[in-house]
Design a protein that fits this description.
α5 packs antiparallel against α8 and α11 runs antiparallel to α12. It contains 17 helices and no strands. The longest helix has about 40 residues. The protein is mostly helical. Among the domains are: about 70 residues; about 190 residues, no CATH class. Helices cover about 80% and strands about 0% of the residues. It is globular and about 75 Å long.
């Protein structure tokens, strides 16, 4: 059955997949397409006929991308430097200067704690790095996106206020010791909260649009791939450098890690978001492959875990450390599910990977329900603590998200819904994730007396 909204979304997906269009350009082109469709429907065409005619008039995504790249695009993406025109070279140089400046700024910000006596090798003085690690690079990533997408001043002010408020809170809260549970929880949830603030700069004037939010999730997954590769390469370089200097009798481990090591760690995300834009098509070729590799592996792990629990007639989640580890795994599985959604195009037909994704969601929801029961049991037995409250809230938030994803995915596979419905659910659930992280960062510390 023809679905007009699904077809329009597939058309805009085709524009996004070409990588040349800016967010505001896609909005404008989609507006023109919808105007054509509305006009054709008014003269008597049905939805399918109106869409096909409007698409011929506006143009198919590949044809539009080719024409756009000639006039407005950035043809330097993926091309050798020598093959570029002088104008494209200047554009690329400006991009590189911007990224280099932001990466250097992130590395320098990471050295600020040392000015106040912070020592990475002593837990009592390494707290400033733990609290501020995400603040060293998240605002700079937002600056990069803001320069590219030019959001409205109001959104820039909101993002700046949120970054500043988060920085002031985590640094002014009077934690009495570095091993406080509320401090560790704030440090773990702050990056997720700030990452969603970065989304304001990325989506610009389309921050209310489901498609723009999914684009942001897609860009996040791609940046994670590049960032991981960069950090792996940096780890190898670090080990090699320390080993070489050790061979001549110099121990540079601490000084190197506190300068180059941490500086490179916070600069890597800035470089990664640039590479996503510069080499977009490469990552898009990798994304479906990674999705098909890791989805079955995570699914097999979840099934094995449930089988072991059933065979042993007990839940290993009664142990606190195991419970925490499986909550980390649940977060990773949800991230993989979202990555699968962003790696897939709405226009594609239903295939076996969609059923795998549904099975992964269902197994994750079952494990989440067991974990939730275990947490409630620990609260009833030992009372409330910051960690137990945080795990309880996290499992409720994850279970609700997984339940929504399962429902919309099942409807899509049964032919009673569209893939756009799945994306719409996930994009509109992002404020819930932001709200929960904000509660842990802002509310938990004073409520639990910085325990």
């Amino acid at each position: 059955m023809f679905d007009l909204e699904d077809s329009v979304r597939a058309w805009t997906d085709g524009l996004r997949s070409r990588g040349a269009f800016r967010a505001e350009d896609i909005v404008e082109l989609e507006g023109h397409l919808r105007e054509e469709i509305d006009g054709l429907v008014k003269v008597g065409l049905n939805g399918e006929e109106a869409f096909l005619v409007a698409e011929r008039r506006i143009g198919r995504p590949e044809a539009l991308a080719a024409e756009y790249a000639k006039v407005h695009g950035e043809p330097w993406r993926g091309m050798p430097f020598d093959a570029l025109t002088e104008g494209d070279r200047r554009h690329l140089r400006r991009e590189l200067i911007l990224v280099a400046a932001l990466a250097l700024a992130a590395a320098l910000l990471a050295q600020v704690p040392r000015l106040f006596g912070a020592d990475l090798y002593h837990s009592s003085t390494s707290v400033p790095w733990m609290k501020n690690l995400s603040l060293f690079f998240m605002p700079l990533v937002a600056v990069y996106y803001a320069v590219r997408s030019r959001p409205k001043p109001f959104l820039l002010v909101v993002a700046a206020v949120l970054f500043a408020a988060a920085g002031l809170l985590v640094n002014l809260y009077p934690w009495p010791a570095p091993d406080r549970q509320t401090l560790v929880l704030a440090a773990l949830h702050l990056p997720v909260m700030l990452w969603l603030v970065v989304g304001l700069a990325y989506t610009a004037g389309r921050w209310r649009d489901d498609g723009a939010r999914m684009d942001f999730l897609r860009a996040t997954g791609e940046a994670f791939i590049y960032g991981t590769l960069i950090l792996c390469g940096g780890a190898v370089l670090t080990a090699f450098t320390i080993a070489m200097f050790s061979a001549v009798g110099l121990d540079i481990r601490q000084s190197y890690l506190e300068t180059v090591g941490i500086g490179g760690m916070v600069a890597a995300p800035v470089v990664a978001v640039f590479l996503v834009n510069a080499k977009k098509s490469i990552v898009e070729n990798i994304a479906p492959v990674l999705s098909r590799i890791f989805t079955p592996l995570f699914l097999a792990t979840m099934i094995a875990f449930l089988a072991v629990m059933a065979a042993l007639h007990r839940s290993p989640l009664s142990d606190r450390d195991t419970l925490f580890a499986f909550n980390v795994m649940l977060v990773l599985v949800l991230a993989l599910v979202i990555y699968n959604l962003t790696a897939r195009r709405a226009a594609e037909r239903r295939e076996w990977t969609d059923w795998l994704n549904l099975a992964l969601i269902a197994c994750s929801a079952a494990v989440d329900a067991i974990a939730l029961a275990s947490i409630i049991g620990r609260i009833l037995s030992f009372g409330w603590s910051p960690n137990r409250a945080a795990l309880l809230g996290l499992n409720v938030v994850l279970l609700a998200d997984l339940a929504g994803l399962a429902m919309y995915t099942l409807r899509f596979l049964a032919g009673r819904g569209t893939f756009t419905g799945i994306e719409r659910w996930q994009s509109r659930y992002l404020p819930v994730l932001f709200g929960w992280c904000a509660v842990v960062v802002v509310v938990f510390p004073p409520v639990f007396a910085f325990a």
